[in-house]
Structures are given as C-alpha cells and as structure tokens.
Amino acid sequence: MKILFIVQGEGRGHLTQAITMEELLRRNGHEVVEVLVGKSNSRRLPGFFNRSIQAPVKRFLSPNFLPTPANKRVSLSRSVAYNTIKLPAYVKSMNYIHHRIEESGAELVINFYELLTGLTYLLYRPSVPQISIGHQYLFLHRDFEFPGKSSFNLWLLRFFTRLTCLGAQQKLALSFREMEDDEEAHIHVVPPLLRRDVLSCEGTAGDYLHGYMVNAGFGESVRDWHNAHPEVPLHFFWDKQDEEEVCRVDDTLSFHQIDDVKFLRYMAGCKAYATTAGFESVCEAMYLGKPLLMVPAHIEQDCNAYDAALTGAGVVSDEFDLERLLEFSENYRPDAAFRYWVRSCDWRILRHIENDMSLSHYPTPVFPYPHCNIPDIVL
Questions:
Q1: Which residues contact 175 (CB under 8 A, 6 or more apart)?
Q2: Which end of the chain is more exposed for a tag (fewer CB within 10 A), N or C?
Q3: Predicted TM-score of the model (pTM)
C-alpha cells in the first residue's frame, strides 16, 4: 500500500511518531511515498527528523500556537490574532495538500494531528481515505477523564481536535493505558508509538535531572531553582533559536538544543525527568522507568499531565519545582504493565491499518458541514 503522511510540525512528538510509523510500515511491505510537514515561522524542523525519515519531505505553512510574552504557556488571544492574519496563506497550504494527496499516488493518508488535513478534507473532499492518529483523539473518547480546568478551554480543545480529523474514517488514539474502543466515535485505543531506539534502551539511575521544555521561557524557572540548589546536576533540552548547541551555564547546568539521539541518551541515564508534558517524552520516561515532573504549557498538556499522574507516573506543577520531583522519586516504582502495553503497539496498529479499515468497502465519511468549493490558488 502506498501511504502519504501529513504531520503537525509543532514540538517533537508527532515528528517522532511519524518516523516510527514509517519504519513500522516499511518493515511490513508498505511504502510511504511522501511526508508533508506543517511549518511555522516560530519553529524549526529538528535535524533528527530529516536524518531519520526516508520518504521525501515537503513543507507547508500551518497554524501554530504562540506563547505568552514570558514564553511559557500558550496565549490564546495572540494565537487567534496571528493565525487570522495568516488565513490566505493557509488556504494556499490546503490547496497544496489537496494536490499532493491526488498526485502522489497514495492509497491512504495518515494524518498526525495536522489541522489543515481535516480542513482540506472538508473543503476539497479528496478521494484517498484518511486515518488520523494521535493521543489527542483520546479526548473525544466517551470514557476519558479530564482535569478540573476551564470548561471553555476543554471545549475548545475538543473542537480543535475534531477539526483535525474531519474526513477521517478511523481515529487511532494513543493512550497511556488500555481502554475499550469507542465504536460510536470510530476511535480505536492503541499503545504509544515509541521509537525502536527507545524500546531497545535500558534505563540506569544516574545522579542528574533531565528535562525538556517546549517554550524556552521556562528556562528562567530552571535557572532560579539551580541557583538555590547548585549541587544538583541538570541537563535540559529546548529548541531556542540563536543559541549554541550546548549552552553551558556552569558546571552543573547545561541547556542543549533538541537532538533525539542525545536526548534519549540523557533520558536513559537520568535520576528523574522534568517536562512540559508532551505526550511522547512522558511515554519515553515511563517506559524507561523515570519519575516525572510535568509542567504543562497549554490545555492539551494539562490533560496529558493529569492522565499520566492518574497512572502514578509523576506529579504536576505550574513551575519547574525540581524539589517536588526529587521528593516524588524517592518512593517511585516503575509500571511494568506499561512496558507490555507499549510492546504490543506494532500488531495493534497494523491490525487497524491493514484489516479493520477494509478501506475499499468503508462508507464515505459524514461531514458536519455541506460541501464547500474554493478556487485553486497557485503556490
């Protein structure tokens, strides 16, 4: 089967999932013909992605969320204003996505939570079937438990998630734990899609704390804690532009540019892990048996952190309060069941792609809005 990927390029989670999915499909005789990655002016595509993906990579301009002036949590007002101004460019992107779907020869589109994929299927109705995959689709599951956050923000999150999967015939929801499928919502619950490098890695208990922050503004919180506890070695990763590959503050604090090989090496050998609660790195830490401190940067990560805390994986905080992480790590015990769940990922996902879908006989998806026609716009 020839397959086209469309990937949201924000953060590292969807990118590493795409790498892992491509490896899985190629091992089982399928071909990924092309990878389309949504880009923004505030993020750069990590070098590890281009090095690891085998299919041709093409990029298009896509909506993204802007942080507050402090560069910590997402600013809803700034994001809406910015993306509204960019609407003409996004229409061009949707036109481009539609042409690539039709011209690539793909028999299936796998969408990694890219908003413009859903909108392209709404406006253009491509003939190629689509599967959407991501942990966010668990938010549409009837049994998912949400944190006690703003009801409006939770509604907005679910609404955004529904937009990303418009036209999808099935949704594969990556989950920390096994749950029943939600057949009415066409949601299949599957394990996290972790890289083979993670699965072949064994964790060891080091003396340093490891971390990742999606917004570099959290660096000040880390520096403040470090100033009060200079004896604790810290290695944090970020994607702050115009910084050295390694920003060495002193003998016990370093900030590293994101690199997946290096990131995994530090993850495997750390004492504990602090993160802005991206799903992918939380799962990697859980698999390697590392206690977690989760500092959400937006409502989606609030849900991730709450869900992971329910499993006993870690604690949630508004700041990088590493003292809480050290206290939690004293009594932490890894969850062996999680490793078994993750290792069942390949056959569960392949089952849905190859067998359950029955793509040629699957009914045409129902859209919530009438068919829309918009003129082609040449890029």
A1: 135, 138, 189, 190, 191, 192
A2: C
A3: 0.86
